Structure formats: structure tokens, C-alpha cells
Amino acid sequence: MHALHVSSSTELIKNEKYFGQVHSNNFKAELPNILIVDDNKDIRQYVINHLSEEYNITEAISGNAALENLEYSIPDLIITDVMMPDGDGFFLLNTIRNNPEWAFLPVIFLTAKNQVEDKLQALEIGADAFLPKPFEMDELIGIIRHQFMLRKRLKAFYSNSESLETNYVFGFEHATLESNEESYLKSLFEIIQENLSDEKFSIESLAEKMNQSRSNLYRKVFALTKETPSNLLKRVRLERSAILLESRAGTVSEIAYSCGFNSIAHFSKIFKEKYGKSPSEYINSFIQEK
């Protein structure tokens, strides 16, 4: 198996049958990741030329190539053609929707198969949008932005949810602390709670809102909680996501975004490290219990 990696230039992964190309000239960790699946190189390049400023782009040349890619790197959104050799778009979408590790991924169909029955089939399987070729690039960009906007709205909704028990989320008891220390932690947790859904909310942001330098924040938080501020923030986000997953308050991607994670792959990785299960497996474990 070939490792998927990023370099300073556009390059072809060793076995193109499986991976296609990774466009990483301007790779930025904070940008959403989009996987484009199409056997037509010109179509792929046309889409890449218009999206690469706003998104990190990976491309695959078939359904099976895309599935191999997903084993290594989970994108935030997939754009796929239908008619392709070595695994068509329907096969790809059906496989994604039946795999709990990928079922949450938004998928946009971009295809010359524009009959009503084709669109209905795609939507029945679980496509999020269907755009027939030839298409207007502005329309595709609008659909992509709409998909991410939907997730941001849900993120805002979940961040304001009043059903969460704050004490449970923080998993921290401080009844024996002196009043000034208790007041400090109360302010700390309130600020974290208010900004939990903001993926740009960092330790620097937390220190600024607490009117402390980063080094002073580190010493104070570690003295009271025995955790570094970064570990505390990560734990709170993960514990909140676990509560939302348990209550099935949304899809994995929606909950991840609502808890301040801007990469589904990173969220899935650290969630599994903490709970021993992927987010989808975690949801299914509660479904099976009921």
C-alpha cells in the first residue's frame, strides 16, 4: 500500500490507479479538503482551477481509486462523476453510505447522466446534490458553499444547545477549591463553552480572554486541573461531541463542526484515541444497546 503524502508540488502518487493526484502547492491545514473523482482529466483540471484557492484538492480517477484514497485520508466533501471505469459514481456513493467510517461525508454528483431516474437514484442512495454536465462553475461553487454553510448553521445551533449539562461536559469537580480558584475556573469554563464551536479559538484566544499571558495561563490551569490548557480544551470538545453523538443530535460531520473541529479526519482520529471507537462506531454502540 502506498502512503499518501503532501509535498511542495503537484505530484502523481506511485500507483495512479488507486490514488490519482494530490494538488498541494498551496496546501493549508485550515482549509476544507475536497476529493474530486472523475476519469476525465480535463474536467478534473477545470474544477481544480476554480476551487484550489478556497480548498485543498485531491483527485482520483475512478470509484475504486477514491475508496483507496479514503482509507488514507478522509475529505470534508466529495465531488464525483457517475460514468467511470473501475467503479462508477453509484458504486462509490453506495459504498460510502454503507461504511460507518465514511457515511457522513457530503457527496455531490457532477455527471452527464442527467435523466430524472439517474437523479432520483443518486438522491435515494444519499447524494447531497446533483449537477448535470455541462454545468456552470458558479452553480457548482454555490452548491459547495451551501453544503459548508449548512454545517456551520448546525454548528451554531449545537453550540447554543441548552440540553447539555455543563458539569458533565467538563467532567470536573472543584467544590473544595478556595473561592478565588473556583471563580477562576468558572470564568475559564464559561469562556471555553462560549467559544467551543469556533475552530479558530486557540489557547492564545483563551489567554487573551482570561487577561493572561499564555505562560501564566498554562501555569494556572495546570496547577488547578493537572491538565495543560490545550489538553483541557481538546478534552472538553471531545466530551461534548460524545454527548451529542450519544444523543444522535446530528451526523458525525455536523457534530464535529459544532465542537470546533474543522477536519473530520483529525476529529475521527483523536476521538478513537480517547474512546476506543470511531465516532460512527460510538453511535452504533448506543443504537445496539437500545
TrEMBL record:
Keyword list, A-Z: DNA-binding, Phosphoprotein, Transcription, Transcription regulation
Keyword hit for Nuclease: no
Domain annotation HTH araC/xylS-type: ranges: 186-285
Alphabetized InterPro entries for the sequence: CheY-like_superfamily (IPR011006), Homeodomain-like_sf (IPR009057), HTH_AraC (IPR018060), HTH_AraC-typ_CS (IPR018062), Sig_transdc_resp-reg_receiver (IPR001789), Tscrpt_reg_AraC-type_HTH (IPR020449)
Top-rank lineage group of the source organism: Bacteria
Pfam families: HTH_18, Response_reg
GO MF annotation terms: DNA-binding transcription factor activity; phosphorelay sensor kinase activity; sequence-specific DNA binding
Location of 4-aspartylphosphate modifications: D81
Residues of the Response regulatory domain: 33-148
PANTHER family reported for this sequence: HYBRID SIGNAL TRANSDUCTION HISTIDINE KINASE C, TWO-COMPONENT HISTIDINE KINASE
Name of this chain's protein: Response regulator with CheY-like receiver domain and winged-helix DNA-binding domain
Organism: Belliella baltica (strain DSM 15883 / CIP 108006 / LMG 21964 / BA134)
